Amino acid sequence: MNATSAIKQYQQVSVNSSVMGASPHRLVQMLMEGALERIALAKASMARNEIATKGHNIGVAINIVGGLQGSLNYEAGGEIAGNLNNLYDYMVRRLLAANSQNDESILDEVSGLMVEIKMGWDAMPDAYKH
Known about the structure:
Distance between the termini: 41 Å
CATH superfamily: Flagellar protein FliS
Low-confidence stretches: none
Order of helices and strands: HHHHH
Oligomer: single chain
CATH architecture: Up-down Bundle
Largest sheet: none
Radius of gyration: 16 Å
Number of strands: 0
Strand content: under 5%
Number of helices: 5
Structural class: mainly alpha
CATH topology: Four Helix Bundle (Hemerythrin (Met), subunit A)
Helix content: over 70%
Shape: globular
């Protein structure tokens, strides 16, 4: 086993351990962090003209946003959940556009939206974090 594969295995164990012990609130934070990371990686790949890597990272970001969208609780979230659903849908469409148009500014737009959502999520009072 080389050092690179050992590091990758350690990172996978570390991620799995983090997920297993995380609250639902923390899991959503982790998804948002993952989407932001993949958008940043896609932007870097775009700058290096690494088309396949860019597409892969945008695809993962789209899947994460779709997972966030699929986890919305309309019963508890009401109008806010509906608004988030529309925003997540918009973000997916913009990520697709960023990929097809090779446009870094669209990635910046989606990243900014995700940061705003995450800031609200991070500021949620403890009473709602279950």
